Amino acid sequence: MTHPIRNRVATAAAALLLAATASAQTPDLKQIMADPDWIGPPVEAAWWQLDGERYLARVKRPDSQVRDLLSVRVPGGEITRLDTDDLAEVDGPEVVYDRARTRALAIREGNLFLHDLAQDSRTQLTATGDAGDARFGADDTSALVRLGGDWVRVELDSGLVRPLADLRFDDEPDPEPEAGGLQAHQLDLFETLARERRQRIEQRRHEQAIADADASSAPQPFYLGKEHEPLFSRPSADGRWLLMSVRKAGADDGRDDRMPRFVTESGYVEIEDVRSLVGRDAPIPQELWLLDLERRIKHELEFDGLEGIDVDPLADLKAEQDMEAHDGDDPRPITVTGLAWHPTDAVAAVQVEAIDNKDRWTVRIDTGFEPDEGPATEEVHRLTDEAWINWSFNEFGWVPGTDTLWLLSEESGYSHLYTIDARGRVKQVTDGEFEVHDVSFGVEDDVAWALSNRAHPTEYDLYAIDLDGGDMTRLSELRGVESYTLGPDLERILVRHSGSYLPAQAAVLPIDGGAPYAATDTRTEAYRAIEWQEPRFVAVPSSHVDRPIWSKFYPARGDFEGPRPAVLFVHGAGYTQNTHHRFPYYFREQMFHNLLTARGYHVLDMDYRASRGYGRDWRTAIYRRMGTPELEDLVDGVEWLVEN
C-alpha cells in the first residue's frame, strides 16, 4: 500500500509528546534524552533500483532493531514500505557497472546477481550468501567475485564458477630435506621412507601436469608458508594476478581487556572479552605480495626505493629523549591502505603508508616483466606531513577508459583532486581553500562528481568537476549532503542529505543540478511541530591565527533584559566537525541548547583548531601541543560573547 511515511512512523511515545508540545515548545530534558525513535528514523542508506524507476531507503523500525526498506517511486515520490515477501525482488546496494554501463553486478544478502539494463533482466549467479566483492573481468564476459576469503571467476554466459586459486598459508609438503639433518639421515637409512616420499612427490607432479593440461580442472594448491596470514586482496582484470596484503602470523596476539557486566539476564556478573586498551599494542607492519596465479609464483614487493622511506622523521625528537632512531639502512615499516587494478590491463596502483603516519606513497605496479625479473614498481606520488597523514582523503583509482590515475591529496593544504598520466605527470585538478572528497566517475573521462564545502566551510554539496580545466559546477544547494549515488542512466543522482534539525533523508536531483524531488521525510508529526531554534553561523575572530573560528551561536530567547549568562559547548571526538548544516552527531545536546536559550542563556558551539573541514593546517594545529590551541580558541569564543 502506498501512503505518506509520516503516517507510519509515529510511535506511542510521539503521540504522548503531541499533547505536551501542542504549543510547539522545546521538550523537557526527559524527552530530549529519550530514545530518538520519537524524532523519526533517519535514512541510514539509500540506493537505486537498477530499473531506474525507484530507489530504496533503509530505516530503523520504531522500538525495534529491525531495519525496513522504503520503496520510493521516481519521479512521483510515492512511498511504500516493503513487506518480507517483496525483498526477493529488490536490487542490493553494492553495484558495479561494466565499461559501457549496459550491465551491472549487484550483491544482495551475500549473493551476486547480473543485471542486463537494456533488457531489464536479472540472473542470479551465486547462492552461497558470502559474496563480498565483485567486478567485471577484462573483457566484460566474466565476473571476479570474492566468496568469503577466496576469489572465483564466474563466466557470465554459462554461469560456470571456477576458483582463481587454491591459496594455502602452509608450508609446501615434502620440502627438500636439510643436508646433514635428521630427516636426510632417516631417508638415507630407511629405503621405505625414501620410496614413499618419492611416490608422493611423483603423484603431486602428475596431478599438477593433468591440471595444467586440462583447463576444466580446479587449480592446484598454491602454498604460501605458515609464517604469514592474509589481510585483503584484489585480482587483476584477467584473473591471472593477485595483490595480497599480509602480516606475520600471530602478530596481533595482544592482550585483550575484560569488562564485567553487572546488569544481566542471569542476575550474575558476566565477564566479556573486549579489545585491548587504546595505545597498548604497537601498529603491525604489513607486506604486499604479487601472486602469479598461473605459474604459482610469489613475488614479495619491495618498497625500499620509495623517496624518504629510509629517513626517520622522528629522529630529532627521539634524540632529545635518548631514544634510538630508525636504522637508515632499512626502509621504515609500512601498511597497505589501498589496491586498485586497472579495469582492463594487468597494471595496478597501490597506496602504502609509513607505519609512523608521516608518509603516504602511491605506487604503480606493472606485471609486464620477464620471468627471471621482479615486478616493475614506480612511485608516482608522495604525500608527506610532519604531523600525520589524514585517515580521510585517501581515495584513488583509474579515470574511465584511460591509463590515468586519480587521487586525493592534502599537499596544497586542503584535500583536492589530482590526476597522474601514464608518463607520471601530476596535475592538480581542483584548487582553493575547501575540501573535495567522495569522488565518482561515470563512463566519460572528462568529468567527475564529488562532495565539497567549496561554497562555505560549513556547507556540503554535490559538484561536477571538469577534469580538463578544473571548473566545479555546484549541482545541489542542500548545504548538508551526506552521500550520493549516480543513477543507472547517468541522468539523475540520488542524495542523502540532512539539516540542523532534519535527520538524514533521501531525494533525487537531475544530473545537471536543480530542485530535489521524490524526497523522503521520516520525521514524526510531533518532532516536526516543534519550533526549533536555527543556529547562527558566525566567524569568531582568532587572536592566534589569521582565520576565523567558525561556530554555531544560539542566542538567548525571551523577554530578558541586561547581560545574559552563556554556555560554551565543546564538541568531543577530537577530529570532527560540528559547525555544519548537517544533522549533528550531538543532536541531543543541540536540543538541550534550545532548552537553555529558552531560559535566557546564550550558547556557543565552536569548531576549535583540530576540527575537520578546514584543511590540513587547522586539523594539525594541535600536533605536539594538544590542549593548547583548543583552549585558546575557546577563550576567543568567550571574548566574542562578552563583546557581542
Give a verbal description of the structure:
The chain is built from 9 helices and 39 strands. Strands 1-2-3-4 form a 4-stranded antiparallel β-sheet, with no helix packed on it. It has a 4-stranded antiparallel β-sheet with strand order 5-6-7-8, with no helix packed on it. Strands 9-10-11-12 form a 4-stranded antiparallel β-sheet, with no helix packed on it. The protein is 14% helix and 34% strand. The two termini are 54 Å apart. Helix 3 (182-189) crosses helix 4. It is globular and about 105 Å long. With 644 residues, it is mainly β. The model is unreliable at 1-23 (pLDDT under 50).
Strand order of the largest sheet: 1-2-3-4
Give the DSSP E fraction (strand runs of 2 or more residues): 25-35%
Round the mean pLDDT to the nearest integer and report it: 92
Based on the structure, what is the oligomeric state of the protein chains?
Answer: single chain
Structural class: mainly beta
Helix content: 10-25%
Shape: globular
Number of strands: 39
DSSP summary: helix tally: 9
Main beta sheet strand tally, sense and closure: 4 strands, antiparallel
What is the terminal-to-terminal distance? Answer: 54 Å
- Uncertain segments of ≥5 residues (pLDDT<50)? 1-23
- Backbone CA Rg: 29 Å
